[in-house]
Specification:
globular, alpha+beta, single chain, 29% helix, 27% strand, 5 helices
Length: 228
């Protein structure tokens, strides 16, 4: 975990107490980041699994990407989680359900417990990024979903390209990944590359391994801010 967002998270309880009438947009992101920070504090073991099994006291976290995001939102932004759950047809939300729940929200209008972030550069810690699996990818998964944990960093000399630090659950690592050399799958943090449409600033492609990605894949990508 990087020092910058650790300090920001440590200050969040004071911010919430000092501003009880803060907007739902801000409080939703704070709650998400506090829950992620708690995982970081208690983490002892983690495994990528399509079945969610969490024991916070033991520091044991077993889930996949959608299971992890669902578990956090159920505790930090219940209305946003309920909207995604309602979108699901299989009993539990999948990555595609997060994408469609965010995508159906019009930019600039809050609905279903979400606000869609139209431009990559406007993403904030606590936001959710979700994409649909590109056709070229051979996988039974429907896509991927993760939390943004740091503001996007523009790539020097590469207009419309951003490095995005995320928290997710995966069996594959990202650039500068916290799971490196731990033998651990499941929960971790890492850096991905996100390209923005040059005209709209909307996310249009991703690179799984940041600047070291061998492929950058076009996909349907949505970034959403859980409000409550």
């Amino acid at each position: 975990m990087r020092v910058g967002w650790v300090i920001a998270v440590l200050l969040l309880p004071d911010l919430v107490q000092a501003e009880p009438l803060a907007s739902a947009r801000r409080v939703g992101g704070e709650r998400v980041m506090l829950r992620i920070f708690r995982i970081e504090q208690t983490l002892r073991e983690s495994e990528y699994s399509h079945t969610t099994q969490v024991d916070e006291q033991r520091g044991s976290y077993r889930f996949d990407c959608s299971g992890m995001v669902s578990w956090v939102l159920r505790r930090a932004a219940r209305r946003a989680h309920a909207a995604v759950l309602g979108q699901s047809s299989g009993g539990r939300p999948l990555a595609r359900d997060f994408y469609w729940s965010i995508q159906r929200t019009r930019p600039g209008r809050d609905s279903y417990g979400w606000r869609r972030v139209a431009r990559v550069g406007e993403a904030q810690p606590g936001d959710v990024i979700a994409w649909l699996k590109p056709q070229i990818v051979r996988s039974t998964n429907t896509g991927h979903v993760a939390f943004v944990i740091e503001p996007p960093r523009p790539v020097p000399g590469a207009p419309n390209a951003y490095l995005l630090r995320i928290a997710d659950a995966s069996s594959y690592q990202h650039q500068d990944d916290s799971r490196t050399e731990t033998g651990r799958t499941g929960y971790g943090t890492g850096t991905i590359l996100v390209l923005a449409d040059p005209d709209t600033g909307a996310p249009s492609a991703y690179g799984w391994f940041g600047l070291e990605s061998r492929w950058v894949l076009e996909s349907k990508i949505a970034i959403g801010r859980p409000l409550d």
